Structures are given as structure tokens and as C-alpha cells.
Amino acid sequence: MHWPQLGVGAVVCHRDKILLVLRGKPPSINQWAIPGGKIAAGEPLAAAVEREILEETGIAIRAGELAWHFEFIERDGDGAVRYHYVVLDFFAEYLHGEPRAGDDAADARWVPLDELDHLELNPTTRILLAQLYPQYIAAEGG
After folding, report:
1. Distance between CA atoms of 37 and 23, rounded to whole angstroms?
2. Region 37-52: what's the mean pLDDT?
3. Strand partners, 108
């Protein structure tokens, strides 16, 4: 495996709700997060975002501007790298579809913005959403 791996995600809002997935596999298993995944070699960013969201949630989107970027590095007990991702999250426009869990998601749903603070969110997702929607969610667990 080559390090780091490049991933993409999408912030998709529709009718005062945001599209989130419950991660079904490590890293971040059993945590709610922005949907997304890995970019394939030669795949343009916008195409990767649109493909990943459709595969993971069944929702068709149009990728927009960059919303957020972060780096995630997880090491094992001996210090060896288990995961190293550089992730680019984009704003996206909802086009059509109903959420359904696909790919490595255990669940996918539209979450009302006023319920965000009550979910077990991935820490990076929590920081992003707290910046975008500070009236609904604190940067640290609520």
C-alpha cells in the first residue's frame, strides 16, 4: 500500500438536513461521518466525489467548491502506520435519491441539523460541522 491515500467527501444538505453515514469499517467504525471514499488513479476530483457519494449513499450530487481538508494518521502500538489519509471534503448539491447504506457504510441518512450534537460523530466531522453550523453543534462532544 502506498502512503498517504487521497480521499474525498461531500457536505450535502437538503431541507435543513445533512447527509451522513455510519462507518461500517475501520477507521472510524460506528461513528457518523461525511460520506466519501478513495479517489481512483486518473479520476478527476469532482467525478470521484460524485461517484463515492452515489456508491456509499445512493444519493446523486453535483460536486462544488472545497469545504474542508484534513489529514488522518493512525498508528499501531509499535508506531507503524495503520492508516494515512489526506481528505478533501467538498460542498455538493443534492440532485436526487433516497439514502441507503452502500459500500462500507453501515447506515446512511438525512440528519436534521438540530440533532447533530446528539450523534456519535467522527471527531474530524464534528470539527467541520461545528464550523459550518455552530448554532447546532459544539466542536467537542455534546
Report:
1. 11
2. 96
3. 21
